[in-house]
Write a structure and sequence with these properties.
Layout (H helix, E strand, L loop, with lengths): L1 H9 L6 H24 L6 E3 L1 H11 L5 H11 L7 H13 L6 E10 L7 H11 L2 E4 L9 H11 L17 E14 L10 E6 L5 E19 L4 E7 L5 E8 L5 H8 L4 H4 L5 E10 L1 E8 L1 H7 L21 E14 L3 E14 L5 E3 L4 E7 L5 E7 L2
Parallel strand pairs: 2-3, 9-13
Antiparallel strand pairs: 1-15, 2-4, 4-12, 5-6, 6-7, 6-9, 7-8, 8-14, 10-11, 11-12, 14-15
Helix pairs in contact: 2-3, 2-5
Amino acid sequence: MVVLSIFLAFMGQLVSADQQQQLALSSASSDFSQRLYQKVALDQSNVIYSPYSIHSLLTMTSLGARGDTAAEMKNVLGITSLGESVHSLYRETIQQLNSQSNVQLLTGNAIFINPSYPIVPEFIQETADEYFALTDHIDFSANGGPEKPINDYVEVKTEHMIKDLLEAGTIDNLTVMLLVNTIFFNGTWNSPFDETKTRKQDFQLPGGAVKQVDMMNGIQIETNVKTDDVNKFDVAEIAFTGSRFAMYIALPQEVDGITDLEILLQKPGKVDELFTGHGSYNVQMAIPKFKIETKLELKDVLVDMGMAKAFSDTLADFAGLTQKGQVYISKVIHKAVIEVQESGTVAAAVTAAEMFERSLPVFFIADHPFLFFLRDKETGQVIFQGKFSG
């Protein structure tokens, strides 16, 4: 990053301190995402989640953490070096994401509070100022249970793609609050696929098996492609209208190369290399048409990654959140959906944290397992990440 900054300055394109910090935030989110991927996706054929949603919600929650609990959260999230500026950086990111006109993109935060618990006013104010978080009370008398109003909120915010996030019985009298992040994306490809050319084709699986998938064919576009013959994968960028957002497909050169690619990307900084060093080529493109839905319970995963105290009913320190008794995070629930089709991509995700007391290719044919990243090229934020294996 330092070398790149010096080079750009030499070329007369100075990278501002704010831009550097934005890149540092997106890099932290990306590295966190790859460590998370190793815990939740390796044994899955198809998976989708939003690194942005999970990382931003936990960063917002860290506003109420103190002592070792705060230190652990910041360390796992990779934001220690950013200090308190991380929150203003997320404020800028949210403003940028929600101001797009070429794609439909909306992200938001909400806090649902148990009215029996006094919440530290500064926490509510800071989350409103830095994360534009809306605050409401948990309605324990709601028809259908206290989960229903929150599920309804999530469904509306994700254009009805995410339904029934919280199961009945998730919320009880010990629930202090629920912190929720939602994100919805709907983008049209710069060069849409021709629906008449979509047909069933072979999709090769590791070990020699083959299955039929709906393959979108026939698109020939000028696009950015990267070939890495050392690590044996290719990356193609498929841009959405306006070209600020793009889907990157990382395709192993070997049918059974997905595991090697997954191992490579767990190394710090490696995922960011997927998005650099591209050349522009006239490419004949074919990718599967697919829809993936994933629900993740992240408590055990985050504890294993080093965020143990935040989930401990005896060690958690959230004195900046509430002054009534010991509170801790009991659950982190994440649900995401993505649909890739001829015209473009629709995706949505929601993350909820509950607090409790106590050779360069001319053809790019994605006909075997691959990873994909839906990314904001301006901020560097990976909005969605996933794997498709047929």
